[in-house]
C-alpha cells in the first residue's frame, strides 16, 4: 500500500506515540506531555486500521526500544565495573564499610531495611565477615524500595544519621534484628541505646535524602531490579554476584 507524504508523517507520529504509550503503560507511567497532540480523526482511524492489520509495527518498535535499553544498561554496567576495579574508593565514597580496611576484594551490597531477604542476607554476610576476617571489605549502599515498603526510607535515613556519629553497623544490625518493629519508636530507642546525640541524630535525618538519592541513582543506573543486590571486585572476579557465590569468590574458586 502506498501512502501520501502527509499520511506517512502521521503514521510515523502515531507509531511513535503508540509505542511510547505502550511502554509507559507497561511501566505504569502517564503521558501528560502527549495530551495535547492533535491527530485528524479520519487519519487516526486509518492509522489504527493499519496497526490492526500490521501489529508488527508496534511490536518491532518495542523490541527495538528494549534492545537499545539493554545495550545501554550493559554499557553502563561495564563502565561501572571498570571504574570499580580501577578505583574502588571512588565508588565507595562515604558509604559505610566494614571488614578489611585495604582489601583487594570489595563487596557492595544494595539493601533495604524492610526487605525480609535483606535481613536473611545480613545473617549470611555477618557469618562471612567472621569466617574470613581481613579477606574483604563490605560496603553498604541504600536501596530503599519505598514504593512497596513504607518504612524503607525512614529506616534508611535513621541509619544514615547513625553513620554520621560512627554507629552505622550497630544501628544497621538492630534494624534488621527488629525488622517487624520498624518505626519511629524503634529509631529513637535505638539511637538512645547507642548513646547518640539525639539533637544531631534528628537533624541529620533531615539531611539524609541527598546521599540516599545518590545510592538510588546508582542502583537505577546499574539496572538493579530488587534487593539485596551485590557487586564485587576481586583478583579473580568482578561484576554482579549472587549471595550464594560470594564465598566461592572469597576462596578463589570462582
What can you tell me about this protein's structure?
This protein is an alpha+beta fold and 254 residues long. The protein is built from eleven helices and five strands. It has helices spanning 5-27, 41-53, 56-86, 88-92, 116-131, 152-163, 168-177, 184-193, 198-205, 209-221, 246-250; strands at residues 97-99, 106-111, 137-142, 229-233, 238-241. A five-stranded mixed β-sheet has the order 1-3-2-4-5. Helix 5 links the parallel strand 2 (106-111) and strand 3. Helix 6 (152-163) packs antiparallel against helix 7 and helix 6 crosses helix 9. The longest helix is centred in the first third of the chain and has 31 residues, at 56-86. It is globular, with a radius of gyration of 24 Å.
Please give a quick description of this structure:
This protein is of the alpha+beta class. The protein is 57% helix and 9% strand.
Following the backbone from N to C, one meets helices and strands in this order, namely: HHHHEEHEHHHHHEEH
Task: State mean pLDDT (0 to 100 scale).
Answer: 85
**Neighbour order of strands in the largest sheet:** 1-3-2-4-5
Query: How many β-strand stretches?
Result: 5
Structural class: alpha+beta
Q: What Rg, in angstroms, do the CA atoms define?
A: 24 Å
Distance between the termini: 57 Å
Q: How many H/I helices?
A: 11
User: What is the share of helical residues?
Assistant: 55-70%
Strand percentage, roughly?
A: 5-15%
Low-confidence stretches: 1-8, 20-35
Largest pleated sheet? 5 strands, mixed
Overall, the morphology is globular
Amino acid at each position: 500500500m502506498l501512502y501520501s507524504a502527509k499520511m506517512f508523517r502521521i503514521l510515523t507520529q502515531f507509531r511513535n506515540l503508540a509505542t511510547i504509550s505502550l511502554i509507559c503503560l507497561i511501566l505504569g507511567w502517564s503521558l501528560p506531555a502527549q495530551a495535547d497532540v492533535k491527530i485528524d480523526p479520519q487519519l487516526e482511524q486509518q492509522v489504527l486500521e493499519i496497526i490492526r492489520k500490521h501489529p508488527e509495527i508496534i511490536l518491532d518498535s518495542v523490541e527495538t526500544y528494549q534492545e537499545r535499553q539493554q545495550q545501554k544498561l550493559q554499557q553502563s554496567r561495564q563502565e561501572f565495573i571498570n571504574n570499580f576495579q580501577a578505583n574502588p574508593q571512588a565508588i565507595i565514597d562515604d558509604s559505610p564499610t566494614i571488614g578489611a580496611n585495604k582489601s583487594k576484594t570489595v563487596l557492595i551490597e544494595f539493601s533495604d531495611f524492610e526487605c525480609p531477604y535483606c535481613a536473611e542476607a545480613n545473617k549470611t554476610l555477618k557469618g562471612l565477615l567472621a569466617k574470613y576476617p581481613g579477606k574483604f571489605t563490605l560496603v553498604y549502599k541504600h536501596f530503599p524500595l519505598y514504593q512497596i515498603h513504607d518504612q524503607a526510607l525512614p529506616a534508611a535515613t535513621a541509619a544514615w544519621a547513625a553513620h554520621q556519629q560512627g554507629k552505622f553497623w550497630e544501628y544497621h544490625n538492630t534494624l534488621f534484628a527488629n525488622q517487624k518493629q520498624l518505626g519511629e519508636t524503634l529509631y529513637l530507642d535505638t539511637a538512645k541505646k547507642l548513646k547518640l546525640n539525639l539533637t544531631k541524630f534528628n537533624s541529620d535525618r533531615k539531611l539524609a535524602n541527598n546521599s540516599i538519592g545518590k545510592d538510588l541513582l546508582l542502583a537505577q543506573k546499574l539496572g538493579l531490579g530488587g534487593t539485596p543486590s551485590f557487586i564485587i571486585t576481586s583478583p579473580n572476579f568482578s561484576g554482579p554476584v549472587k549471595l550464594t557465590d560470594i564465598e566461592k569468590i572469597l576462596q578463589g574458586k570462582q
